Amino acid sequence: MNFLPLSNYLQIIERAWNNRDGEKISAFISMRHEHIQYPNYQLENADALVQRFLPSPIDDLIVFHLKCCYHFNRGSFVEAYEAQSMLTQSFTKVLQMQKEENWSLPIMYTICSDLRLLAQLAEKTRTGVNDKPGEILEKAAECLMGCFRVCAADNRSSEEDTKRIGMLALVNQLFKVYFRINKLHLCKPLIRAIQSSPFSESFSLSQQITYKYFVGRKAMFDSDYELANEYLTYAFENCHKYSVRNKRLILLYLVPVKILLGYIPSRYVLEKYDLVQFWNLVQAVCQGNLRDFDELLETHEAFFIQCGIYLIIAKLKIIAYRNLFRKVYLILKTHQIPVESLQTALVYLGQTDVDLDETECIVANLIYEGKIKGYISHQHRKVVVSKQNPFPPLTSLH
Q1: Any residues with CB less than 8 A from the CB of 136 and at least 6 apart, and which?
Q2: pLDDT, tens only, 381-393
Q3: C-alpha distance across the termini of the chain, in Å
Q4: How many CB atoms neighbour CB 275 within 10 A?
Q5: Whose C-alpha in 126, 228, 255, 325 is 20 to 30 A from the C-alpha of 91?
């Protein structure tokens, strides 16, 4: 489309609306479409012109869309967001009026995705002293919830016409907002809604991958590593092989979860997805080399914090403790390990501030978590380990 006159654009919208062609309308109302760059489409007040060509209620949607284009191309992202927000609210009313039909769901997907992206842009450009971080994204989430409620409440339509098929796309948009503003507790009711949906097999694979990715991340933060492993593995294995960026993003969370569960990622996979930061860390954990672990954690601290995985990476240290103590056990060849021997190993590997009491605390945690089978004899300052499999494989603990 090379500078299609605005009147022609409006006629295309009208025909698509009359034909209930949601796919075509979604393309021509998208902020990713080339028409948003055309100067003659950037109108702050297009009511009179649009109403000459379009009937209600589609006219309001296009008026807000053109207003959004106007502000967007002038770098006024807050105003562009506000116009998109009005567009989303108007569309929510339209969606609610459409009984037993779901042809407009593609429009909803596009509008809601653009709303979130514009909200993110608006957040970045606000410079006011009294501006509350995340405020615009929270308001965007309220708009998205409006669409979600309409879709979730559509219980009477047939399977072919139900709007409930659009729930997962909205949940994924809400996940992206809630993770960005760090309000993960708001994900819980959304997860319940999807789990109880009878259309779980009807959702598109791409939407299911996105859903599993976010639920897997949430499970990781909740320390439910089994669920995190299941969902993130599904997301990674089903993500398209050419979507290297997305597969890398999944691995950022899947790799530490795998290590916590006792599975060691291959060097080939880490190098393939440009995650070599993990390889030396994996080696340090496997070898129980606490000095290397601490140094690597410090070296890559900014990277781990930026990715939001610093805390879970720090949790890998308990496995490094376990592997170090196992080495001490193998060297001493006794089931009664002096706590002092364990402390000596810790100090040798850079843990110079650890005394005997703290060493016992570390051992107690390992015993509690099942990583060591045995008990501590405080009277004799010894760790008495089981004669059968005193250091069970981590993979057997789950």
Answers
A1: 78, 81, 119, 122, 123, 126
A2: 999 999 999 999 8
A3: 57
A4: 16
A5: 126
